[in-house]
Amino acid sequence: MKSDTTLKSIAKELGVSVSTISRALNNKSVVNEKTREKVVELAKKYGYVPNEIARSLQKCSSHTIAVVLPDISEVFFGKIVKQISAVVSAHGYTLLLADTGENKEQERKHLQSLYQHRVDALVLASVDDEEKHAKSFADNSIPVIYIDNVPEGTDLSAVTVDNFSAGKLGFNRLYDAGHRSIATIMGLQNEISASLRLKGFLSGAEEVNLPINPDLIKIGDYKRQSGYDAMCELLDNRDKSPFTAVYVASEKMTYGAKKAINERGLKVPEDISILGFDVHNDDYGGSQNITSIKQPEEQIGKKVGELLIDALVNKINASSQKILLSPLVEEGDTVSDLN
Amino acid sequence: MKSDTTLKSIAKELGVSVSTISRALNNKSVVNEKTREKVVELAKKYGYVPNEIARSLQKCSSHTIAVVLPDISEVFFGKIVKQISAVVSAHGYTLLLADTGENKEQERKHLQSLYQHRVDALVLASVDDEEKHAKSFADNSIPVIYIDNVPEGTDLSAVTVDNFSAGKLGFNRLYDAGHRSIATIMGLQNEISASLRLKGFLSGAEEVNLPINPDLIKIGDYKRQSGYDAMCELLDNRDKSPFTAVYVASEKMTYGAKKAINERGLKVPEDISILGFDVHNDDYGGSQNITSIKQPEEQIGKKVGELLIDALVNKINASSQKILLSPLVEEGDTVSDLN
DNA sequence: TTTGTCCTTGCAAACGTTTGCATTTTTCTA
DNA sequence: TAGAAAAATGCAAACGTTTGCAAGGACAAA
To answer: Which of B61, B72, B295 best probes binding to A when mutated, by most A CB atoms within 10 angstroms?
Structure first.
């Protein structure tokens, strides 16, 4: 590969015009077969690699898709990115990745920079309460797809797990197993996804006319420590507010909660049942698989990729698609059946 | 933000030349202060965003860094990417990410495509046994930095944990705790990093004149299942080839091995001590923290970022830097002290 | 007033492509 | 063999910047 070989240099060597070289290499329009052969041969000899930047400028398309995430080291996002990459790279697109560190300001900076790079599309897991920065991509007809945290009432497209259903499914899984005193540890309620999960959970309870003791609802920040702390509070209050099961709404909080239970010498699921959220048992070191409500990351990533290809390659401009994927129950050994 | 506002359109509106607009906005060369103000004001009014593609073409620099990995959903890589992103984005660089799925052909395709995008640098965790594809970046004076798996005797730069030391450190940790029959589960020996770890392990044993029973050396493929399988074999042979501790050379195999032990009703560390590798206890759900040899991901990523900035921004062209970072022991509760 | 200096601005080329249109060459038909 | 149709090629503009060089104007010193 040589980056200093250009259409021009090949043209000069061959004594033909640049246009001919371009056409020969892109085998689009008609070029004399003998000419083409000579061109191709020479291009190979010199290791010609087209300059995508020049191409982008000319075509007004960078063949590039921005992916903006709060934390790429989270397995959840990693798996999604992996799928998106697989789908779009098959169509010649490359990912521009930005990690915002869950910081609103960083997110805005990255968006600005990516806009400057004239990305063809944007996939965004936002931590920003304002939508306008993402919106301005769409205003310039750059497709935007939200994942994970979808602003309420947005016009933009989105692919996520159905968080309301996930909350309800969690409640039902425990209720169906005979649990009637159910605690929960949910995420920060200023995030849409978290608040939907709680709503779903409560709605499940309401449907079966089971009152939920407010003392059994704890809020954490998704980190392991907060799951641990919340669980400790629940356990401390167990005399006053007893419970037989807990639904923990994030992977790391689930681990923290389990740790708190084990530390007190209680057994899972004999003493307390745990239903986790999005636990990656495959990657996980426990001897016991945790029953959990799973987000279908592979599906999310794949769907995002497909929407992107639809928009960019097939030029289908379905404005504002809202894809809600169903959560699943992944069975493990941490929920006991009281029936 | 508007992408259809260009230097030209602002120039026309203001009745001055494009050059002046460019200079005013880049506040490089001298421009009349009043002119600059007018330009800046108009640029803001129209939401002008420079076209990075045009800029790249002109400057022969895309402000873009390629990161090519076998599996972005691995926490190890995720953490590295996060750090690299943090360092380089502060200097205006953006990451182009490619996930090869541990597939040599995919890796080559991605490299080709990234080369085409004229990235300014390449960070590569390779699964390719041939070095030439990466080499051709360097041949065109594009800095290349290997991470994780560094080809033996390469001319290119590299930042990794010192795998030999990691192997030795693992042995010593167990030996110092009084263990004398030490098993190990290592990675596939065609990968340099894995073979170095084994060499380090054996070298540690040799230094203290402790013979290692070859039956106690197992090879896995880094996945959880293979750790489980290898451990089962070790346990099945325990009568013939007894051992009190095992050093498992990857995170997921560590989990698998622990599971195998627990399933047989054996206790860690009372019956068997486990020393893991690169276990992320923070993210991990076990009630017991696993003692392990840690790769300093944050350091790796940070160092890679710094080398990139040195090369790209500070124009220090130190050819072929080999950075070996020291592994650490992260103490947990899975190695018993026999002294 | 002249000369020279400095400040500000414009011109035009360059970066490497693609592509509509015009032009040349070839091939075919009558 | 002329003429037309078809095929192959070239020309030049365009994409949106940056930047070396030159030119213009203002102003001060002589």
So the answer is: B72
